[in-house]
Design goal:
18 helices, Rossmann fold, 7-stranded parallel beta sheet, 2 domains, 443 residues, lipopolysaccharide biosynthesis, Kdotransferase, alpha/beta, transferase activity, single chain
């Protein structure tokens, strides 16, 4: 072990009590953090096993992307006549809750091990995966080093790296470069991501696109959202505008902009905070501003013939309903882009034919944001007041909104296929490992 990684490991080992306290604190609002805590330190209740296809998706967004990839992996393994046994790991409670939907009989779901040498070794001894796929940005020095030393083929799938993250990694080059170089393969979303990853020594083998483009909206939610939107227009003369996946501070900016910009006629606002632990705080913030709030979790019915309650703001305080929210909305403000947070994934909005208005900060999804804007499926604005001003223009010109809605669907459809490509190269990586293990050893 290098001096740099030894120092890193010591810091993480000493930080374990802090991690336990953090989990206990988060667990007060998100009970999922209090479940199976010892798994994070490499202690498991089940018997040791082997041969897993291990997919790691740290949080909610990565888990949704992983779900698309996992379906493609199952199809690829079936095509080759191979058994498929999934080991799914996460770092956040929302990721683990979403991941439960992806499991089939015989699959296993546990927490990602804390990145100390001991916890990582216990994890690998427990499950002995045949193949490891880490989603998007998950690079852990001890985990990568242990997989490499044990001959476990480990790949970074759907990989992305923005300029800000590259600069941070370069400041810690002594730790980050060996970690990126330790992967057996890296499959980038875009050529720009690939170029940045190569600067850290990552073995980028291909640019395969973004698997999130392969997501299809839940047909039941999509149909329900469209039906609700139609009835809302006919019965109340309203159209829904969405603040999607908002982050802390953005709801306050929105409330301030509502006071600055003339009211938008015939609009029903829908707010969907990114993190569930903030649902109550956002509801309270709206109430303090004098707005009435109707929460999705308290709607009496989900039938198209029963419209949600009359209120100034509908609060989307449920998980897994984004397809409903986007399908219900005429346009959406993209959360995370009005504060310097990098933006949120806009691909799901496009798949639901919902055009988006983006703030100035989309560095986490720079390529998708640029492509969406170029296709006519999105608009770039300077701030929230500018977004509301543009929305007023668009509502007065419904043909522009309709054209943008059609452009959004076309944009989403044009970039599909990354999941199948990634599943294919993952299978080839595993096949290469198996052939290598069967090759005669040179004496």
């Amino acid at each position: 072990m290098s001096v740099a990684r030894a120092l890193y490991s010591t810091v993480l080992r000493l930080a374990q009590p802090l991690l336990r306290r953090k989990l206990a604190r988060r667990g007060r609002t998100e009970p999922g953090y209090l479940t199976h805590v010892e798994e994070r330190f490499g202690h498991y209740s089940q018997a040791p096993s082997q041969g897993w296809v291990w997919v790691h998706a740290v949080s909610l967004g990565e888990t949704r992307a992983a779900g698309i990839l996992i379906e493609a992996l199952r199809a690829e393994w079936a095509r080759r006549g191979w058994p498929f046994h999934l080991l799914l790991t996460h770092g956040t409670a929302t990721g683990r809750a979403e991941g439960q939907r992806l499991l089939r009989e015989g699959d296993v779901q546990v927490w990602q091990p804390w990145d100390t040498p001991a916890a990582v070794q216990r994890f690998l001894r427990q499950f002995r995966p045949a193949l490891g796929l880490l989603m998007e940005t998950e690079v852990w020095p001890n985990l990568v080093a242990a997989c490499r030393s044990q001959g476990l083929p480990l790949a970074l799938a759907n990989a992305r790296l923005n300029a800000k993250s590259l600069a941070s990694a370069q400041r810690l080059r002594w730790l980050s470069e060996p970690a990126y170089q330790g992967f057996r393969a890296v499959w980038a979303q875009t050529e720009a991501d690939a170029q940045r990853l190569r600067q850290l020594g990552a073995p980028v083998q291909a640019v395969l696109g973004n698997v999130k483009f392969d997501a299809r909206p839940d047909p039941t939610q999509h149909s329900l959202g469209q039906s609700l939107a139609q009835r809302l227009w006919v019965e109340r003369g309203q159209r829904v505008l969405l603040l999607a996946s908002s982050r802390e501070g953005e709801e306050a900016l929105w409330l301030q902009a509502l006071r600055q910009v003339p009211p938008l006629p015939g609009v029903q606002w829908l707010l969907v905070p990114r993190h569930p632990q903030r649902f109550d705080a956002v509801a309270a913030l709206c109430a303090e501003a004098g707005l009435s709030v109707a929460r999705r979790s308290q709607w009496s019915s989900q039938q198209p013939d029963d419209l949600p309650p009359v209120a100034d703001v509908w609060l989307g305080d449920t998980l897994g309903d984004m397809a409903l929210y986007y399908s219900l909305s005429r346009a959406a403000l993209l959360g995370g882009s009005f504060e310097p947070l990098g933006g949120q994934n806009l691909i799901e909005a496009a798949a639901c034919a919902c055009p988006v208005l983006m703030g100035p900060h989309t560095f986490n999804f720079a390529d998708a944001a640029a492509l969406s804007e170029a296709s006519g499926a999105a608009w770039r604005v300077a701030d929230v007041p500018a977004a509301l001003t543009l929305l007023a223009e668009l509502l007065a010109q419904p043909e522009r909104l309709q054209a943008a809605s059609q452009a959004a669907q076309g944009f989403a459809a044009a970039h599909r296929g990354a999941a199948a490509r990634t599943a294919h190269v993952a299978a080839e990586l595993l096949l290469s490992q198996r052939l290598h293990s069967l090759a005669p050893r040179r004496l």
